[in-house]
Amino acid sequence: MDTKSKKPWQDTPDVSARIVTSIGRIASVMRSGMWEFATAENLNPTQAEMLQLLQGRKQGVRLSWLASQLSISAASASDSVSALVSKGLLYKARAEDDGRATALFLTPEGATMAARIGSALDFADQAAAALPASQQAELLTGLFKLIAQLQKTDRFPEMRACLSCRFFEPNRHPGKPAPHHCGLVNAPLSVPLLRMDCLEHEPADPVAKARNWKVFA
């Protein structure tokens, strides 16, 4: 086609495509930061992510759960776990909910390392913190909405998010600045306070979880 006959911007990708591209670029930059940290600590990024996922999980996790969270094979997850055990950062023990199963736990050294891993992404946190508070709230809302849509495809892993917690009560205070409610602390909950990963999280039943996520569907 003659470039002179083209309409301005007609080749611009859809907004949705540009959103996905932007998230991918951000993920690449963050992955690079994780690589730098992991390499300096004699880890690889998968091992570092495993330590992060185990942080605060006092009841331990199963190998299959780790593999699902990281979208890797059970064999790859097993290799990384073995390496972390040999480094003294993880240990295996009987699962508290099933004495026949094995769960993975952080050692004290592993917990210390997991706490330090967050510093690898300080640059990204600072970039987000530099945005006006109103834009941060809008961005967080948009991300929750995107996650809600992704969960419909069954491709998004389990999260310890407020919206999948049994204590979350959606729209209990309609019309208020904090429309939702946390039953654990018995207090109103605004969107900017919603957590992606809460240590006090207790999974809601499937019906309640689906209802909660409809807040952003």
Automatic annotation (TrEMBL):
Pfam families reported for this sequence: MarR_2 (PF12802)
DNA-binding listed as a keyword: yes
Organism domain of life: Bacteria
The keyword Endoplasmic reticulum appears for this protein: no
Biological processes, Gene Ontology terms: response to stress
Record key words, sorted: DNA-binding, Transcription, Transcription regulation
GO MF annotation list: DNA binding; DNA-binding transcription factor activity
Domain called HTH marR-type: residue spans: 16-149
SMART domains: HTH_MARR
Protein's name according to its UniProt entry: Winged helix DNA-binding protein
